Amino acid sequence: MTVTADAVAALICGVPTGLFIGGQWIDTPETIDVENPATGEVLAKVADATPEQGMLALDAAVAAQKDWAATDPRERGEILRKAFELLHARADDFALLMTLEMGKPLAEARGEVTYGAEFFRWFSEEAVRISGRYSVAPSGGTRLLTMKQPVGPVYAITPWNFPLAMGTRKIGPALAAGCTVVVKPAAQTPLTTLALAGLLTEAGVPAGVVNVITTSRSGAVSEPIIRDPRLRKLTFTGSTPVGRKLIEQSAQQVLKVSMELGGNAPFLVFADADLDKAVAGAMLAKMRNIGEACTAANRFIVHESVAEEFALKLAEKMGAMKVGPGIDDGVQVGPLIDRAAIEKVSALVADATDRGAKVLTGAKTLGDKGYFYAPTVLTDVPDSADLFAEEIFGPVAPIITFSSDEEGIALANRTEFGLVGYAFTENLSKAIRVAEALETGMVGLNQGIVSNPAAPFGGVKASGIGREGGAEGIEEYLETKYVGIAL
Ligand code: NAP
C-alpha cells in the first residue's frame, strides 16, 4: 500500500509537540527540528526543554508517586492492558510515525509496534503478581516478612533506534510496579514517545504518572534530575560512554540504575552448522533495523571449512535486498539515522579494506538524498580492523574465520561488550558448552533474534546492568523490605 503525502501530513499534524508535564502539554519558545532520514527534510518541530522544565517534570512525577503507588495493582494492570489494546488499534499510525522519524521499513516498524505493545500486556499481567515471603527464622522465634514496594520516581532515557519499544520496555514495568516516570526520548525521534504519552492518557494513566520531556540539551537537562534526591531510579538505554557518565552522576544519590548499553555481538558458525539456517539467522541478526540494533551481529566468526560457502550465500541474500525510503513498497533496508552514521560506517569499511578485507557486496553509499548505505559483506577481515572493536550500527557483515572451537569462542569473547552472542551448530552438547562459555547476557542458539518481552533482556561487562522484560523486568522497579517480627 502506497503512503500518500496527505496521509503523512495528517499523521504528523495529529502528534502533540509540547512537553508533557503533570498531564498538561507545554510549548516552549525554542524548538527542535525532527528530520526524516530518508529525505533530510524537517518533519516536525517539538518543544526544547530547559533544565528548569526538566525539574518541573520531576516535580510532577514526585507529586503523583504516592497516589499511583497506592492504586490497586489490578487497576494499574487494567490501564496497561488498555494501552496495549490502543496500541494495536493504532498500529498503522505508530508504525508510520516510526518509519518517518527513524527510517526503518514499514514492515519492521509494524513489528516493533507488536513487540513494543507486548511489554504493556506482559506487565499488565505482572502488576498483580508482585509478592513477598513469610518465613520462620532458622533459630525460631522471630518471623521474617519480606515485602516488595515501588522504588519511587523513575527517570527513563531512551535511544532513537527503537522509538516505541525502548519506551514501553521501561514504562510498562515502572507503571506495573507503582512507580511514576519522566521519559526523555532521543531528540532525533521524539514523536513516537509524544504520541505514546497521549495514548497512555487515553488508557487512563493519571496526570503526572508519565511525563515526557524533549530537549536538545540532554546532558544539561538530565544531570540535575539525576542528582535530585527525590529521584529513586535511573533507567537508560543508549551508548556505553553515555551510560558510564550517567552511572557516575547516579553515584551521588546512590541511585538504583538499569543500563542497557552497547553491544558487539559475535555470530559463531561452527563446521557442523546447518548453513541455510545460519544464513537465515544472520539476515535477521545483521539486517533487522538496518543493522542499527544493540543486538546486531557485529562480528561473523565462521569455521574455515564453511566460511566461503557461508559468505557467498550471505552476500547473495544481502546484495539482493531492496534499499530505499521505509515507506515505499517492498523496501527492506531504510536509511541510516543521520549523516554522522553514514560517515562512521563508511570509515569502518574503508579501514577494513585498507587492511586487506575483500568486498563481496556493497561497501558504498546510495542515492543523492537521505542516508542510505548498501548492505555489505566483507571477507578476509583482519582481527585488527576497527569494526571488530566498535559497534558498526549499519548493514555491514564482516567475516573472520577460526579453526578450532576454542579459538572461535576466544575470538567471540575478545571484547569489552557482553550483550548477546549467536551460535549455530547441530551438535547439542557443543551448543550448550558454547552457550555457557559466551560472556554475554543473552545467547541465540540457531536463531538470529533474542528479543522477547517474556525473557530477561540485558548484558554483562560494558553492555550493562539489569534486565528488561521477563519476570526479572519488574524487579528493577521494586525494592525489597524485610520486617523482623518478634513473637
Ligand atoms: P546515546 O548517544 O547514548 O543516546 C541515548 C540517549 O541518551 C538519548 O536519549 C540521548 O539523547 C541521551 N543522552 C546523550 N547524552 C546524554 C547525557 N550526557 N546525559 C543524558 N542523556 C544523554 O545512544 P544512541 O546513539 O542514541 O543509541 C545507540 C546506542 O544505544 C548504541 O550503543 C546501542 O547499542 C544502544 N542500545 C542499547 C540497547 C540495549 O538494550 N542494550 C538497546 C538499543 C540501543 P540525545 O540523543 O537527544 O542527546
TrEMBL record:
It is an enzyme of class 1 (oxidoreductase). One of its GO terms (biological process) is gamma-aminobutyric acid catabolic process. The keyword Oxidoreductase applies. Residues 25-483 form the Aldehyde dehydrogenase domain. The active site is at 260. Transmembrane segments: none annotated. One of its GO terms (molecular function) is succinate-semialdehyde dehydrogenase (NAD+) activity. SUPFAM superfamilies: ALDH-like. This is NAD-dependent succinate-semialdehyde dehydrogenase. It comes from Nakamurella sp. A5-74. The lineage of its organism: Bacteria, Bacillati, Actinomycetota, Actinomycetes, Nakamurellales.
